[in-house]
Specification:
By secondary structure, the protein is mainly alpha-helical. The protein has 7 helices and 4 strands. It starts with a strand and ends in a 5-residue tail after the last helix.
């Protein structure tokens, strides 16, 4: 597990709990979603390939970093949406536990295995 370097106080306003027995509905106000690209862009990318590995692959192959990143990210559509949903749920759970420390796990083996350097 590695640190995503996301400050819990940055994402705390994203999650608004509405307790509707027997469920809890989580709403994320639209004005907060506008900041997702700035806050989550690099940490989400690092869930698939960390900086050291990206540097190593780029230096070894001579390919641009963008190609390595594209090869690691899931295809657009349900897989990408599912992964992003898992990341948001993870952030919510970390926020709701009030731990203040967000760690990550590398995601699906499928994303790793479909690359030549996998």
């Amino acid at each position: 597990m590695r640190d995503l370097n996301i400050d819990i106080s940055t994402i705390a306003p994203w999650f608004v709990d509405e307790h509707q027995s027997p469920y809890v509905l989580i709403r994320i106000p639209a004005d907060h979603t506008a900041s997702w690209a700035d806050v989550l862009g690099e940490p989400v990318r690092q869930c698939y390939i960390d900086d050291a590995l990206l540097e190593e692959h780029s230096a070894r192959t001579g390919c641009p970093k963008s190609e390595h990143i594209a090869a690691k990210l899931p295809d657009r559509g349900s897989t990408m949406a599912g992964d992003f949903g898992e990341i948001l749920v993870y952030l919510y759970l970390r926020w709701s536990s009030k731990s203040g420390h967000i760690a990550k796990q590398l995601f699906s083996e499928a994303a790793v295995s479909r690359t030549p350097w996998g």
